[in-house]
Amino acid sequence: MSHATLTPKSRSSLRGATLPKWFLWAVAAGSIAAGLGISAAAGLNSSIQWALIAAVLFVLGTYAISARVEGGRQAKDRVATSMVWVAFIVAVIPLASLVWATVKRGVKVLDGYFLTHSMGVVADAEVGGGIYHAILGTLEQVGIATLISVPVGVLTAIYLVEYGSGKLSKAVTFFVDVMTGIPSIVAGLFILSTWILMLDMGPSGFAGSLALSILMIPVVVRSTEEMLKLVPNELREASLALGVPKWRTILKVVLPTSVGGITTGVMLAVARITGETAPVLLLVWGTDFINANPFQDPQESLPMYIYLQFANSGGYGAAYDRAWAAALTLIAFIMILNLAARGIARWKAPKTGR
Amino acid sequence: MAKRIDVSGLNAYYSSFLAIEDISMTVEPRSVTAFIGPSGCGKSTFLRTLNRMHEVTPGGRVEGKVMLDDENLYGAGIDPVAVRREVGMVFQRPNPFPTMSVYDNVAAGLKLNGKFKKSELDDVVEKSLRGANLWNEVKDRLNKPGSGLSGGQQQRLCIARAIAVEPNVLLMDEPCSALDPISTLAIEDLIGELKERFTIVIVTHNMQQAARVSDRTAFFNLAAVGQPGKLIEIDETERIFSNPSVQATEDYISGRFG
């Protein structure tokens, strides 16, 4: 297919032969066809196998044809480009297939009734019931965790960027880094041993919130720190030179300039902890009934609901469908949060337009 | 309201590095004093010691005396925040607050300090923008973002912001170096008007600009890279540019080095 596009090599040193734009698409289509053909011939029946063969053929094909027509440098450039494309597709496929699988299986029982009722008197094998109690629990636990983590995290970041120097700030940075790597089950066990075993408190949504904020604080600190570092020093100096005290400069100039990025960071941290199951399992225990009080008695949460419904379903039936519908709700919830974060970031971003 | 600045025996450090050494000079009120000298000789550092902005840089510290009329800026119990309200500053690159409108930028000094009356604010903003020769250009877009103005307008906006808090002294750190000749001219004219009300100190790399706008000129130099910068001489601008008393000044001005 490439022979038609071959142009005679020009003598001009600035002008070289170029392949047309449809060349890449042609090679891609060709390598997919070849990949399918080879797998059919060899009797391979996994879609991963033919896709890998096609990807390798695509990279090699672009290189070979381009090296012949355009020369070595352009061929290397094309290989780098096609590898980026292959990597992109490899990254997108699992994501897309995950969303597809969740939507396909989740919409079966997802309706208004499902969102507004609990599992109170519904047995696992029975049809019906809903996730109202789980949504309520997730909202309360994540909300309280956010209320604890955002002030602590943002103030820590302000200390690190605006005031910190020397040993204390180095130590804080180090421990924040360490905290970022804490597995969620360890955070859960920590709260279990202090709050529930040592202080003798019962399971509650609040105990879960404490563990979730241990996971959330380092993420908030890190992202806020990066955002504050992006604020140009000139703005701080301009404000200080007007005779504005440092704390007001931070409050009125530095934070407003970076509030979009900080909000995005907070929302991503919220999204991260919303899906946590382990600490909730240890500390909140779960219930089939509606419990609106996060400070007393077990509550439910979405990830735990998914886990328990799936574990009790045996892979089919009403509970299995409910697990998928709850998973879809969780994904939608996190996506709405992310969209909201983007909206806020765009709305609050420093305006440059005329 | 313009005040005299009297500097004696001033050293400024970055951590242990001595950046400027033993500077003594007087800046007359209601006049323009220009600082000239090669890059790295400490003009900007010295300028920033005059409103205690030097110590904002990590490791920055100052020894010596800076008298603003009869008050030592580095005396015990002096609040740097109060000093900066008396001695305003305009920076090399225009730096309007990106989250604020034109109006809020000018009002920032008053608003951020929390002491203003809504009714007075409009007057202050208009007066400052007129003072900075910007009013006619922005009066219809006061609520648009300040960063949407052109570079020259932004710099005049920063000047308006600085004079809105009614300082006694205005420090300008190469205010025209990022601007085109027309905006530069606008700002130089403005400096000529502002000196009726303020004491103005301007750092510039443009010798013609120093000659055009200033009444007195100070020449700074450093012996070698890594050595502290020193004040070579300060005199009437006319004298510095026609018949300076130190050979190094003449060499620098006539372009024989630096």
Automatic annotation (TrEMBL), chain B:
Membrane-spanning residues: none
Alphabetized GO MF terms: ATP binding; ATP hydrolysis activity; phosphate transmembrane transporter activity
A Pfam family: ABC_tran
Record carries keyword Nucleotide-binding: yes
Gene Ontology CC annotations of this record: membrane
GO terms of biological process kind: phosphate ion transmembrane transport
Entries under InterPro entries matching the protein: AAA+_ATPase (IPR003593), ABC_transporter-like_ATP-bd (IPR003439), ABC_transporter-like_CS (IPR017871), P-loop_NTPase (IPR027417), PstB-like (IPR005670)
Record key words, sorted: ATP-binding, Nucleotide-binding, Translocase, Transport
Domain ABC transporter positions: 5-247
PANTHER family on file: ABC TRANSPORTER I FAMILY MEMBER 17
This protein's name: Phosphate ABC transporter ATP-binding protein
Organism of origin: Streptomyces pactum
